[in-house]
């Protein structure tokens, strides 16, 4: 029989305060999301208001506690909540912008979506009610690229479950043939080969190059994707010039027909808002936070005075007054925490970005990628005295506007490689050289990873072939065989 015992045990635990949690969450937000977060806090907390807090004067009250609400003969105070020193004012708006400037977003019409456009074409066809139902469900299964990537049997099961309609793969395939005739051509394809075939077959096949392109896509698609052009030439008994003309026709096709319908308004509305603004003035770097659309925050005087009136009231407090006191005090604490978290966010951002600027000063002055020094999160953590996880949160989804473009903060972090002279070279510099070499290569005989390794080693970079392959993949550059052109 197991004996039960009770015992005392002490443990040392690390717990984050509400303010620390608030600061961590705000630290990760880029400027655009921070603006939305501040608006949300303003809506939820009546204590917070937009404006400056410079006109508020502390009355020098004594300390106010929740316990004192239940003790009528004790003095109430608001010192910890209304003191300017405890909730310091700070600027969220850049000084070089006027308060009269308006930054309203221009509204735009959303237009018709891709799936609505397909459903409109479905409604123009002479179809019965059942066919219209199946057609709409198939259109709903088409992704943004224009493909149906699920098996028709799985779609049939979903229709039976969701709509209580029994159907077969053959019936769905007949409806899919109807959708294949919709604009843009190639929509509703189940794979890339079918998508390209639908597009090439919509052209005049009497033209030799188009007819040849169809043969390549239908019977030699695997060789085409692997760029085994010699095999295609041999099997079709064609010249290199004929193959080139056919490939040119194929390359004019759209592998993602859904993207051709892209909403121009929505695409134009998506943009990057830089979190930092960097300029070079008289040979020196000038940095500022991009806080143009962020409001100043202050504590509401109306609610502060309400709390004061309850605190200074003599005699017993009613139940409603106690509830009011508790509510206002809770919101006041939350408002102060939020303001302090924003202040800490601002300080942490400036501390981190200044350390990055100091580390990469030569690069920021010249804008030349070859001046980019190897830098990892640990390097900035040492310079700032902050934790590596804090630096990671700061650089995540943050951008800086420089005189040579808007760049992600992650762009400046890279690994280092040793050169023959013993100096450290940034992996960013190696990638730049790789891109240059590949752009200048003979496309009929592309450079292999081993050849690229030899070129880099001749330039003094100690690099292995597997490292060349890794950097090439990071640059989204295919292997030599797939870069081959006629």
Instruction: Please tell me what the overall shape is.
Output: extended
Number of helices: 21
Helix content class? 40-55%
Radius of gyration of CA atoms, rounded to a whole number: 33 Å
Secondary structural class: alpha+beta
Oligomer, anyone?
single chain
Q: State the end-to-end distance.
A: 83 Å
In short:
One of its GO terms (molecular function) is sigma factor activity. The chain has 486 residues and is of the alpha+beta class. It is 48% helix and 7% strand.
Provide structural commentary.
- It is extended and about 100 Å long.
- The strands form three sheets. The chain has a four-stranded mixed β-sheet with strand order 3-2-5-6.
- The chain folds into three domains: 17-94 and 272-413, no CATH class; 114-261, no CATH class; 415-486, Homeodomain-like (Arc Repressor Mutant, subunit A, Orthogonal Bundle).
- It has helices at 18-28, 31-44, 79-82, 114-123, 129-140, 152-163, 169-179, 192-201, 208-219, 221-225, 229-236, 240-251, 264-269, 301-311, 319-359, 361-366, 377-384, 388-395, 427-439, 449-458, 465-474, and strands spanning 48-50, 276-281, 284-289, 297-299, 399-402, 405-408, 416-418, 424-426.
- It is an alpha+beta fold and 486 residues long.
- Mean pLDDT is 79; it is low at 55-109 and 263-269.
